Amino acid sequence: MMHFDGKSVKAFDGRETAPAAATEKMFYTPEGKAMAFYDGVVGGRSVGAPGVLRMLELAHRQYGKLPWASLFAPAIRMAEEGFPVSPRLNAMLKAEQHLKKDPVAAAYFLDRDGNPWPVAHVLRNPELAKVLREIAMGGADAFYKGQIARDIEAKVKGHATNPGLLTAADIARYQAKVRDPVCIDYKVWTVCGMPPPSSGGIAIAQMLGMLETRDIRSLAPREGNLNADAIHLFSEVGRLAYADRGRYVADSDFVPLPGNSAKALLDKQYLAGRAALIGEKSMGQAKFGIPPATALALGNDNSPELPSTSHISIVDAAGNAISMTTTIEDAFGSRQMVRGFLLNNQLTDFSFDPVDANGPVANRVQPGKRPRSSMAPTLVFEKATGKLVLSTGSPGGSAIINYVAKVLVGTLDWGLNVQQAISLPNFGSRNGPTELEQGRVPDSVVEQLKARGHNVRLMEQTSGLQGIMRMNIHGEEMWFGGADPRREGIVKGD
């Protein structure tokens, strides 16, 4: 969570942690090979110590105005009274194969015949309401140091085929952290993002730093249609940023960044040199760079990240703002349900392989370590005045970086409002194919990209971008919100 109090920006880190008993090869098969992804996900093995409640408690102690207990009332009411199953939830349940393996999850999400509840069915969760009441009255300790934590341990360790290592003691030891945000100057703005263990802030800052050496502004879409030059440039800077991300970025409490800070990866000369690698033809797959002060021999990460996340952006009348991204990693997490909530599968955000021919992988499993993420809650300010301009972020797994960077380019360079920028087709590269949102890019543009050496992949890209932007309308400053039409997000204002 990125927080602005009208004066300064802080990054609150509620990322999950690996158990004390975790080993570098906890996602290896008995034969000594990295297991298939979903073999690691489903069950107790993938569950890390949850962090969000400790993070919210930490932020509330520093900035909260309302009593802690009162903040839970709307969620308790919704859990008790229920909410109608949405088309998106129904569709996700129809495509889901693993929830039915957990009797508790199946009893909640499926009917007696094992079918997903239909759209508009009212889904109630009295077990979760009870848990929320305990936390409202007892603080986060009620979750981290009592029966709830013991119930999580029992579920994790009790899985019949894929038990995990997480204990109630691991949960009790969890600590949220306040970190310095990753901030860069981009033209007339200052852009602040999340530091490690998220890779989002650094990767987006690198992309903007490289774009600053090129004329992205002249490549604005016309009538909502992207052109091949814009997609080419954006995809190539993405390739370069994702290459560095896979090499260098992990939990910096365990694996330091080059030069022990983000500065080396964001050095303007370094980024200009990286941008100089971009030519008329696609580079296909970019190689990592060697930023100044690099002394580490590291391997390349192979962890996938899946798009099952939520994001909220909020500003208030007092000048406070947050940009907050939360996730349990894959859709329905580890598919293990306890007391009305699903357990995460965050540990599969680590690299399953701890080393490769180049050396140890930065994002390998280590006890107490936070897995790398791509979450990119972002705040943008006017450089000259320090006034907040934009709060944005998105779900979307490792594609979050491209989604958020698209909104920043759309608003800051192309003069779009935040809704127009969110609604643009999604595009970019994660240092693999050039990914274009299916049905949103003209065939002629696809052919132009192929002619320039792009391996084009047309795919569904369900971002969930949310944003609030300061705008001047008829001489009056006001806030303008945008929500992603690809999901079920909304904009609300008082």
What does this structure look like?
This protein has 494 residues and is of the alpha+beta class. The protein has a domain at 179-302 and 372-483: Orthogonal Bundle (Serum Albumin, Chain A, Domain 1), CATH 1.10.246.130. The chain is built from 15 helices and 20 strands. It has helices spanning 37-41, 52-63, 73-81, 87-95, 103-109, 126-138, 141-144, 147-157, 168-173, 200-211, 228-248, 268-275, 400-413, 418-423, 443-451; strands at 2-4, 9-13, 83-84, 122-123, 177-179, 182-186, 189-193, 308-315, 321-329, 337-338, 341-342, 355-356, 359-360, 378-382, 388-393, 427-429, 434-437, 456-459, 466-473, 476-483. The strands form 6 sheets. The protein has a 6-stranded antiparallel beta sheet with strand order 6-7-14-15-19-20. A 5-stranded antiparallel beta sheet has the order 5-2-1-9-8, covered by helices on one side. The protein has a 3-stranded mixed beta sheet with strand order 16-17-18. A hairpin with a 2-residue loop joins strand 6 and strand 7 (189-193). It starts with a strand and ends in an 11-residue tail after the last strand.
Helix share bin: 25-40%
CATH architecture of the domain at 179-302 and 372-483: Orthogonal Bundle
DSSP summary: helix tally: 15
End-to-end C-alpha gap: 23 Å
Query: Strand content of the residues, in percent?
Result: 15-25%
Strand order of the largest sheet: 6-7-14-15-19-20
CATH topology of the domain at 179-302 and 372-483: Serum Albumin, Chain A, Domain 1
- Rough shape? globular
Number of β-strand runs: 20
The CATH top-level class label of the domain at 179-302 and 372-483 = Mainly Alpha
Kindly report the oligomeric state of this protein.
single chain
Using only CA atoms, what is the Rg? 22 Å
What is the CATH superfamily label of the domain at 179-302 and 372-483? Answer: Gamma-glutamyltranspeptidase, large (L) subunit, C-terminal domain
Please state the structural category: alpha+beta
Runs in which pLDDT lies below 50 for 5 or more consecutive residues are none
Overall pLDDT confidence? 95
Q: Sheet with the most strands?
A: 6 strands, antiparallel
